[in-house]
Amino acid sequence: MSPESRAIATAQAFIDAFNSQDHERLAGTLNYPHTRLALGRFRTFDSAQESVAASTAAEPRLADEGWHHSVIAKIEPVHVGVDKVHLAMTVERCHENELVYNTFDTLWIATLDENHWGIKFRSSFLR
C-alpha cells in the first residue's frame, strides 16, 4: 500500500471511529504528540489517554448541535513522502436525517511513526 493510500485509510478510520464515538479506537488513529488547531487555538495531546478524555468531553457539545455523523466529502493528498502525507479535506457534519449542517475545510498530516500510520496534526476551519 502506498503512503498516500495509507494516509487516506487512516483519515477514514478516524472518521469511522469518530462516528461511532469509540474514543479508544479514535485515539488509535493518531500519532503522539498530536496537535490540533481549531476554533483559534492549538491543543496538543501527548498521549492516547489525553485524546480519549478530550473526545469524551466533547460528546455533550456534539449532542447539543444535533450531530449524528461526519462525512469526508473531499480528500486530496497535496504532498506525499515515504513517511508523511498532507491531506486537504472537506468534512461535512450531518444530522440523523442526512442533512448537512456544517461544512469545513481541514488540513491533516498523517505520519508513519514506529511502523504506525496516524494523524499527527489537524488544522480545521471548523465554525
Descriptive labels:
single chain, 127 residues, alpha+beta, Nuclear Transport Factor 2, Chain: A, 6 strands, globular
Q: Give the oligomer, counting copies of the same chain as homo and different chains as hetero.
A: single chain
Instruction: Tell me the number of structural domains.
Output: 1
Query: In one word, what is the shape?
Result: globular
End-to-end distance: 34 Å
The chain-level mean pLDDT equals 97
Placed side by side, the strands forming the largest sheet appear as: 2-1-6-5-4-3
CATH topology: Nuclear Transport Factor 2, Chain: A
**How many β-strand runs?**
6
CATH architecture: Roll
- Please give the share of residues in helix: 25-40%
Strand content: over 45%
Secondary-structure element series: HHEEHHEEEE
What structural category do the secondary elements indicate?
Answer: alpha+beta
As residue ranges, the low-confidence spans are none
CATH class: Alpha Beta
Q: Describe the largest sheet.
A: 6 strands, mixed
